[in-house]
User: Which sequence fits this backbone?
């Protein structure tokens, strides 16, 4: 369900459950968190997270969400591990991203997307709270009013509008993973400490 490919220091994690819109089970989230936690110590120079099929992720598997996954600490474990990485991290959105899956994208340094995708986080309608670190990360990117549009008004935001807001960094027509790999070239080619230092200067 989570596939990992490693090529020249570039780690690419793919959510591969397209028949279920890449909805995330607890086991899949744990696998993603394991990958993010391993990436730094094992020398990853970049981490790209993407999905198989036409949807990046519909968020939590609904059966597991209602059974407790919606409030599991594994979401924060995953986003925290991504945010803590010293290398460049990219969410390569192959399609719509929804719900708790937003957390891993918000924790990445960059978010790129195919055209036509949408971003939404229907916590108001579903009766769940967003993950604690997701809200400040979202507000930092788009401001409180636009965060309210997503979280409180439940709006599905097209990635073109999301790019204007600062939530998406680039909408691409070319092969998504080729674009993502192109974005990490300079960082992968630099000395690890140089990349680490610049990331620290950018994100604190």
Assistant:
């Amino acid at each position: 369900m989570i596939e990992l490919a490693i090529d020249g220091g570039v780690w690419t994690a793919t959510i591969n459950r397209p028949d279920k819109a890449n909805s995330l089970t607890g086991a899949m989230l744990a696998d993603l968190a394991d990958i993010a936690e391993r990436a730094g110590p094992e020398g990853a120079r970049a981490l790209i997270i993407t999905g198989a099929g036409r949807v990046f992720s519909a968020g939590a598997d609904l059966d597991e969400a209602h059974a407790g996954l919606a409030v599991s600490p594994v979401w924060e474990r995953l986003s925290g591990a991504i945010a803590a990485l010293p290398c460049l991290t990219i969410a390569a959105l192959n399609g719509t991203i929804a719900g708790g899956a937003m957390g891993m994208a918000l924790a990445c340094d960059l978010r790129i997307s195919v055209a036509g995708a949408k971003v939404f986080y229907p916590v108001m309608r579903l009766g769940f709270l967003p993950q604690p670190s997701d809200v400040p990360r979202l507000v930092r990117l788009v401001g409180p009013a636009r965060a309210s549009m997503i979280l409180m008004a439940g709006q599905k935001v097209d990635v073109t509008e999301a790019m204007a807001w600062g939530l998406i960094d680039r909408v691409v027509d070319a092969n998504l993973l080729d674009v993502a790999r192109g974005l990490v070239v300079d960082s992968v080619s630099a000395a690890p400490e140089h990349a680490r230092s610049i990331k620290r200067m950018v994100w604190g």
